[in-house]
Amino acid sequence: MANPMFHFFTILFFIMFQTISAQTIAPAPAGPTNITKVLEKAGQFTTFIKLLKATQVADRINSQLNNSNQGLTIFAPTDNAFATLKSGTLNSISTQDQLQLVQFHILPTLYTMSQFQTASNPLHTQAGSSDDGQYPLNVTTSGNQVNVTTGVVDTTVSNTIYSDSQLAVYQVDQVLLPLALFGAPPTAAPAEAPAPSKPEKNVRASDAPSGSSDSSTDTSDAVAVNRNAVKGALVVGVITAMMMSVSCL
């Protein structure tokens, strides 16, 4: 009969060997976090990646993630989201405004999906000054759904692309257009209503200025003309009769 202690040490040795082997063949730890690689692996974010690189925001994100403990939240629009924009939208804004647009999709704080439920609106973004609130985002939740509104666009978080203790990347199906860049121009103030006119007073013929077309004056003038015409006719008739009488004598 085999010694029980022999079996015990045999089993113990086998367990230790398996543990050491497992530690030896374990994969090497992943390299530094790289936002463009995260998006490339997920696919369908080509346009957003180009903007991140063109504005050098990608380099800033990678530097912050790998050289500090500051967390970040990124809303990544898909290629289809950019395709639905009105033609020429991106080209219609300056390079500086393109930078603000990209940074508008980045929150300088890590938010998990559950943390959005207790977030206080408006959320500050990396666009503009962190204190002036010029480029705010608002989020609301309904169950597990997170809704994002900018004042121009309303959309929802449709997928979690990447999440760790420092970075969260969420897919959105619309480009987040900030109100400060794409809001409707302010409407003009309504014109003031004209002051009510004063009621006109009746003007007597004697008070009316020369050239007045007052109807009462016109009527008086017409009557005077008619009277003068009658008088003139009577005078002519009398003179004619007298001349005829003299000629007969």
UniProtKB/TrEMBL annotation:
<keyword id="KW-0449">Lipoprotein</keyword>
<comment type="function">
    <text>May be a cell surface adhesion protein.</text>
</comment>
<keyword id="KW-0472">Membrane</keyword>
<comment type="similarity">
    <text>Belongs to the fasciclin-like AGP family.</text>
</comment>
<feature type="region of interest" description="Disordered">
    <location>
        <begin position="188"/>
        <end position="220"/>
    </location>
</feature>
<dbReference type="InterPro" id="IPR045003">
    <property type="entry name" value="FLA_A"/>
</dbReference>
<keyword id="KW-0336">GPI-anchor</keyword>
<dbReference type="InterPro" id="IPR036378">
    <property type="entry name" value="FAS1_dom_sf"/>
</dbReference>
<feature type="signal peptide">
    <location>
        <begin position="1"/>
        <end position="22"/>
    </location>
</feature>
<keyword id="KW-1003">Cell membrane</keyword>
<keyword id="KW-0732">Signal</keyword>
<dbReference type="InterPro" id="IPR000782">
    <property type="entry name" value="FAS1_domain"/>
</dbReference>
<protein>
    <submittedName>
        <fullName>Fasciclin-like arabinogalactan protein 11</fullName>
    </submittedName>
</protein>
<dbReference type="Pfam" id="PF02469">
    <property type="entry name" value="Fasciclin"/>
</dbReference>
<keyword id="KW-0325">Glycoprotein</keyword>
<feature type="compositionally biased region" description="Low complexity">
    <location>
        <begin position="205"/>
        <end position="220"/>
    </location>
</feature>
<feature type="domain" description="FAS1">
    <location>
        <begin position="32"/>
        <end position="176"/>
    </location>
</feature>
